[in-house]
Amino acid sequence: xxxxxxxxxxxxxxxxxxxxxxxxxxxxxxxxxxxxxxxxxxxxxxxxxxxxxxxxxxxxxxxxxxxxxxxxxxxxxxxxxxxxxxxxxxxxxxxxxxxxxxxxxxxxxxxxxxxxxxxxxxxxxxxxxxxxxxxxxxxxxxxxxxxxxxxxxxxxxxxxxxxxxxxxxxxxxxxxxxxxxxxxxxxxxxxxxxxxxxxxxxxxxxxxxxxxxxxxxxxxxxxxxxxxxxxxxxxxxxxxxxxxxxxxxxxxxxxxxxxxxxxxxxxxxxxxxxxxxxxxxxxxxxxxxxxxxxxxxxxxxxxxxxxxxxxxxxxxxxxxxxxxxxxxxxxxxxxxxxxxxxxxxxxxxxxxxxxxxxxxxxxxxxxxxxxxxxxxxxxxxxxxxxxxxxxxxxxxxxxxxx
Length: 402
Known about the structure:
Gyrase A, domain 2; Elongation Factor Tu (Ef-tu), domain 3; globular; Alpha-Beta Plaits; six-stranded antiparallel barrel; alpha+beta
């Protein structure tokens, strides 16, 4: 290949940029970017604390474009999806959204995501990682068309107590009537926007889906409309804090996809991840049903739980023990954070039976660095219910005017 034909070649810049990249680059003060699903995304714009409090006290914008999106359509689309996922999607109505997981034959989770029912025989499935091979293999025998449409749809997450007020100021009449896990179509300044009342923060919030050609116009309009409501762009580090408070799971942190795990015993089932409410054994056959039924019959050997941990040092990657001496290991922390809103040191952890019972006392092995001098502490931890933070505003319709 000659030098002229090299210009713009993808291998020269292996990470794609989203339609919002130039606006995000202009706001970035610390030049902190991380890869996500083949795109470069912002880890932090300015300060993690400021971005965190924008979610909880005002309004935040997060670039969702790298979220992998699939169009699933055809006469058998409903039957296909109901066979694929563990939840009963026959109950999902048009203009509604459902959180789902799907498993392999061993009942081990491959991934989770949200399913949007766009029409009678058309759905959009959004997930953090690419799953096309698995979806196509699972479609054998069904009259269904599956295609990835990630680059055809730009998306922003607008989250926080003032998010609905910002959308109202943007001119999206009736957006306040959207119920949780419902979506609708709106027009604003020549833009056709799909707005869903969904998010990854556990707070009042929305996700906006638009043609990439209108992406920059949407960003500018949101920033203008939200200026008096404290709007701020946030990166993935602040998002990670609020999703832990909400008790939401993150792939490759709280679980490893069964399609990518290489070591025995590292894959997890939805029952082990505390997602039994997503498994409907009454709906008929789905992939992994037999294995999950057997696991349900035998009882769980481990489960992901919420922990309250003494002190204020996040117990990141901490090992868990039955007593302070650390004589018997019974699990490990998958995600941890000091919650500024809850004023609690919280964590998600995989714990062995019977110690995952609510109220159980464990001990976490936490390491602290004091000016490059490390200390080891055994901190008391208690199994508690999730989510850690669940404000009433996240489900009230119409939302309050914050």
